[in-house]
Every structure is written in C-alpha cells, then in structure tokens.
Amino acid sequence: MQRLEKLGLIDGFDAEKFSGGSDFEGLMKAIIDDQDPLTSGYNKNDLFYSNSGNWIAKVPANFKTLATIAGSDYYIAGWWPGNEKLANKIVAISGKYNENPLFVYAGNPTNRLHTIHFYRWISNAVFGSQLANLTDYILPSPTPNPIPQPQPLTPPTYQAPSKTYQAPNQTRLEFKPATKVDPVQEISLTNSRDSLPKTGTQETTEGFKLASILIACSAGLFLLKKKED
Questions:
Q1: Cβ contacts of residue 54 below 8 Å, gap of 6+?
Q2: CA spacing 20 to 30 A to 131: which of 21, 72, 169, 170?
Q3: By the 8 A CB rule, do 60 and 10 touch?
Q4: Cα–Cα nearest to 39, from 64, 2, 13
Q5: pLDDT range class, residue 104, cuts 50, 70, 90
Q6: CB 43 within 8 Å of CB 133
Q7: pLDDT of 100
Q8: Whole-model pTM above 0.70?
C-alpha cells in the first residue's frame, strides 16, 4: 500500500502504518458494507486480518469505503503493538482509476490458510458484479427410520399325511428261468480189437504171415551158420 501511495497514481490516497509495523499482524472485528458486490458473501459484522500492519488513512474522492475496524472490543488475536489505536480505521475501499474499477484492501487475504475465509475478497474483485446473499447452510434433518410394528403370529396349518403310500420309484427286475440245455454226449474209447475197423484184404494178411516165417527161418540159419564157424 505504501508503494501505491508513492506512485501517486490516485489523488488523495494515503496509506499508514505504525513505525516499524510492517510485520504487525492481527485478527479483528470489522464492519462491512454488505450491500456491495465486492463484499458479497460477508456479513455486516465480520472479520478482518492483516500481517502487514497497514490501514487506509485517507479515502480519495469518488471512492467508497467497504470495510472498517469496529469501534470497540475489536482485537481478537495477533501481535500488533498499539492496536488500541486501530478503532474505526478504514481497511478496504473501491473506486475507479482511468475508468477502470480499482479495489484497495489493507489486509492479506492470501496469507497461508486465511484464504478459507477471506478468498471472497479476491474472487469478488475479479468476478463479482452482482450482490449475493450469505445464508447458513442447514443440514437436512435425517429421516427417522420407521419403527417396525409387531405383527400377530399366525399358527402354522397342520396337514395330515396322506393315507395312500406310494413307494419310491424302483427298477423292476424280471426273473426268467434258464433255457434247458441237452446233456453233453459222452464218447468212450476202447482198445478192443473187435471195435477197430478192419482194413486191408485177406490176401495182404496171408502175405504178412508168409514173410514173417521166411524171416524167422533166415535168422535161424544165420545163427546156425555162425555157431559152426
């Protein structure tokens, strides 16, 4: 802010801080003009944070004051020696420079996690053109589960067993007597001479007998001859 003042671009603009207070910081209660699009989303009684120890001592002509420190009991937390002198100090203004909108904020909305609450100052300055209402989000009441009502118990109906017995399905086997087989014919073998078939002729038998006699005689003569020798 001191840099903006030194540039001299805005007539009548004056930024102030305590001597050596560039590192002073504090969270304070603030009064917000909640009817301006730049403050959309904030309540009339809201908060302001700064860690640079600045405020706006003089507002240029045709500029509008948007936020001031509360008049009393405003300091909540921080390290800002002489903070009792900050009552009613201006901390945010808006106007035009060369026919372009200009927003000046003495706080530090992008410091660490402070953007969780103060990010709207930036988004409204960039995109805000319409006023919005800040309303608390009310969680819908959970629908209670209906309590089940006891139902009367219905006694079971007794069903008598059937008198007709039905056997389970079974495979039926039919018995048939075996076919009668004729006994095996027995064959007896005998060595009876009479049972053998007669082969050859009568002449052949007589020839065998004559040959046998001749052989016997020849053998006898041979033996006799050998004994004489």
A1: 1, 2, 15, 16, 17, 106
A2: 72
A3: yes
A4: 64
A5: very high
A6: no
A7: 87
A8: no
Q: What are the structure tokens assigned to 174, written together? A: 């039919």
Render pLDDT for 11-41 as a digit per residue (tens, 0 to 9): 899 989 888 878 898 999 999 999 999 998 8
Per the document, the length of the chain is: 229
Are residues 67 and 74 in contact, defined by beta-carbon separation less than 8 angstroms? no
How many angstroms separate the most distant Cα atoms in the chain?
Answer: 193
